[in-house]
Amino acid sequence: xxxxxxxxxxxxxxxxxxxxxxxxxxxxxxxxxxxxxxxxxxxxxxxxxxxxxxxxxxxxxxxxxxxxxxxxxxxxxxxxxxxxxxxxxxxxxxxxxxxxxxxxxxxxxxxxxxxxxxxxxxxxxxxxxxxxxxxxxxxxxxxxxxxxxxxxxxxxxxxx
Length: 160
Description:
By secondary structure, the protein is of the alpha/beta class. 39% of the residues lie in helices and 26% in strands. It has helices at 51-68, 81-87, 96-109, 124-136, 142-145, 148-154, and strands at residues 9-18, 23-32, 37-46, 74-78, 113-117, 140-141. A 6-stranded mixed beta sheet has the order 5-4-1-2-3-6. A hairpin with a 4-residue loop joins strand 1 (9-18) and strand 2. Helix 1 (51-68) packs parallel to helix 3 and helix 4 crosses helix 6. The chain is globular and about 40 Å long. The model has no long low-confidence stretch (mean pLDDT 81). It comes from Phytophthora megakarya. Pfam families: RVT_3 (PF13456).
């Protein structure tokens, strides 16, 4: 998928939602491709949310993280095929609330990213961030908990 000469960043994102409480969370990891260094990794709590809202919020939060770091070339990977395909323009987005979020994604990603679907197995680190935020009931960052190394271990990324 990536050319050998690609020197940008990789964003992995995942989310979860408790339909009974309408509380959700998402996890985003921003990697510098050379050396697979974690640039940023955070879990976010999202209130009054549905599952589909969560999928867009994770993508938007990740794009915002990349923009804040000045990333110019980004590949975004998530395990929600619907969001990835809608962001790529392959399928329609018909729900008004999600259309607004899609528009926000399109604005943030201009000239910045390529999107790709990744199987859940290869997205475990982002899933971990999301699950921990939901468990804590608050947003958090791996830098605050000193958890960069565990996140790297569970990321399923092989170093060459």
